[in-house]
Every structure is written in C-alpha cells, then in structure tokens.
C-alpha cells in the first residue's frame, strides 16, 4: 500500500521507479542510524541513459534540469529500498548535484534546481535542504547530471 509520499508522486503524475542497479562496487543507498545516504544517481529511465553530453554544449540547461529531476526520483527509490517507506522521511538534509559542464557553462545551480524542486513538490517542508551544485568535466556513462541525497528518518 502506497503512503502519503507515493500518493503525492502519483498526484504529480509520477511513479517511483525501480532502484537503479549499481554500475560498480557500491550500494544504491545505505542507512547509518537515522540517516540514509544515496549513491550518486544518474538520470536512468528503465535502465537507459537517454541523454549524454555536456550541459551548455550537447545538452541544454532546461534538458539538464529535467534530468536532475529524474535523478532525484531515482534517489527517492534508493531511499525507499533501505528505509522501507518514504513516509519515514523526517527531512531531506543535503543534496549534492554534479553537472557535466561545457567549459563556459556556469548555470549549475539552475540545473540542480530540478532535483530540489522535485523534492520540495513531493515532500513539502520536509524537502527543504542544504545543497551543493558542482560543475565537473565528465560523469559516469557521459551523463549530463548526477545527484546524491541525504535524508533523516523518523526513528521507528
């Protein structure tokens, strides 16, 4: 039975995807005490990375913002895989977004807003978080964006 968070996702026309399998030797998410830390989530949909390249070159900032939203959705799936229920989220503590950037691209914060805005829309005040938006030369599989999330759970 889906809880309130998954009902909100459905209201927004979204569904929680399957957890993206690891590309190497790591777990999609781990729990330590009341915290869940996700690994970097790529904008994979049904096992496929549909868009590759650098933001500001092959990928537009608007496309990248949408991809960051997909990363955040994948992060929520990873959180659920170890927390059991997204309704256990007390708050999103931190989001780190990595943007594979053309050398003259400086709009990383706007791209990572895709993830932040999704978390706010789904979780309300619990989705307000600290954040870093970092431009990098290249990401795994030539992905344009990667997002990792740290959440605090209610102690249950």
Question: What can you tell me about this protein's structure?
Answer:
The structure is a single chain. The chain is an alpha+beta fold. The protein has helices at 4-11, 61-83, 108-123; strands at residues 29-32, 35-38, 44-45, 48-49, 89-100, 130-136, 145-153. The radius of gyration is 15 Å and the shape is globular. It starts with a helix and ends with a strand.
Q: Would you kindly provide a brief summary of this structure?
A:
The protein is an alpha+beta fold and 156 residues long. The chain has helices at 4-11, 61-83, 108-123; strands spanning 29-32, 35-38, 44-45, 48-49, 89-100, 130-136, 145-153.
How are the elements arranged and paired?
Elements lengths: L3 H8 L17 E4 L2 E4 L5 E2 L2 E2 L11 H23 L5 E12 L7 H16 L6 E7 L8 E9 L3
Parallel strand pairs: 5-6
Antiparallel strand pairs: 1-2, 2-7, 3-4, 5-7
* Total of DSSP H or I helical runs spanning 4+ residues: 3
The global form is globular
- What kind of sheet is the major sheet? 5 strands, mixed
List SSEs in N-to-C order: HEEEEHEHEE
Spatial sequence of strands, sheet with the most strands = 1-2-7-5-6
Helix % is 25-40%
Q: Give the distance, in angstroms, between the N- and C-terminal Cα atoms.
A: 18 Å
- Give the mean pLDDT: 96
Low-confidence stretches: none
**Would you tell me the structural class of the helices and strands?**
alpha+beta
Number-wise, the strands total 7
Radius of gyration: 15 Å
- The amount of beta strand, in percent, is 25-35%
Keywords:
156 residues; 30% helix; globular
């Amino acid at each position: 039975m889906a809880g309130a968070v998954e009902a909100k996702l459905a209201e927004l026309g979204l569904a929680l995807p399957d957890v993206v399998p690891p590309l190497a030797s790591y777990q999609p998410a781990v729990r330590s005490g009341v915290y869940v830390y996700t690994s970097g989530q790529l904008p994979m949909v049904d096992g496929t990375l549909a868009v590759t390249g650098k933001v500001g070159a092959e990928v537009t900032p608007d496309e990248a913002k949408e991809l960051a939203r997909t990363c955040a959705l994948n992060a929520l799936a990873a959180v659920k895989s170890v927390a059991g229920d997204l309704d256990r989220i007390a708050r999103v503590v931190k989001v780190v977004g990595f943007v594979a950037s053309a050398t003259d691209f400086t709009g990383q914060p706007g791209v990572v807003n895709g993830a932040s805005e999704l978390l706010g829309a789904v979780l309300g005040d619990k989705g307000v978080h600290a954040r870093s938006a970092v431009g990098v030369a290249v990401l795994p599989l030539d992905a344009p964006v990667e997002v990792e999330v740290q959440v605090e759970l209610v102690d249950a």
